[in-house]
Amino acid sequence: MISGEEWRSELDKRRAQFRRIVDEHGCDATIVFGAHGHAEQFRYLTNFAPALGDAWLLTHGDAQPLCVLDFDWQVEEARRRSGIDEWRSRFGAAPLVAELLAGVAPRRVAVAGLDRLPVTAWRGCVGGRARSKSACFERLDG
Predict the structure, then answer these.
(1) Which candidate among 59, 63, 79, 134 keeps its CA 20 to 30 Å from the CA of 102?
(2) For the structural domain made of 4-139, what CATH number should be given?
(3) What confidence tens digit (pLDDT) does each residue in 62-95 have?
(4) Strand partners, 60
(5) E strand or H helix that includes residue 19
(6) How would residue 139 be classed by pLDDT, with cut points 50, 70 and 90?
(7) Edge-to-edge, what's the strand order for the sheet holding 54-60?
(8) Coil/strand/helix, residue 11
(9) What is the pLDDT of residues 48-70, one digit of tens each?
């Protein structure tokens, strides 16, 4: 069985490789979306898949990653499994994701998991950003 330290090292390697891909696409922020039963990209980078609801992984530059869940009852498990300290929750989390993105004002955002993202959540997440062209969104997963 793999030790906790070895698993953390594996997650660090995965996140570093993901960061390289994001940088190659000229993006300064990321959104990785996952939902119950469709959290492959999110789980690959966090070692956590939500039992219910949506999950969002956000990164910006060299800052520590931040994750958002729809339900707060999974936050402690997610924190433990992922090694990521900053987790937030809000039912219908897309507006919170939009607030967090607005706070860092990215120029170009890499998006993974877009094929599973409900249209209403996407609209809530990007708000007026896509229409105003204040940020460009780059799909990384197909």
Answers:
(1) 79
(2) 3.40.350.10
(3) 889 999 999 999 999 999 999 999 999 999 888 8
(4) 29
(5) helix 4-24
(6) low
(7) 86-89, 66-69, 54-60, 29-35, 108-112, 136-139
(8) helix
(9) 999 998 999 999 988 899 999 99
Over 37-103, what HEC string results? CECHHHHHHHCCCCCCCEEEEEEECCCCCEEEECCHHHHHHHHHHHCCCEEEECCCCHHHHHHHHHH
Largest Cα–Cα distance in the chain? 50
- H/E stretch holding 112: strand 108-112
- Give helix 119-126 / helix 94-104 axis angle, nearest 10°: 30
Report domain extents, the chain.
4-139
How far apart CA 121 and CA 63 sit, in angstroms, is 24
136 and 108 Cβ atoms separated by less than 8 Å: yes
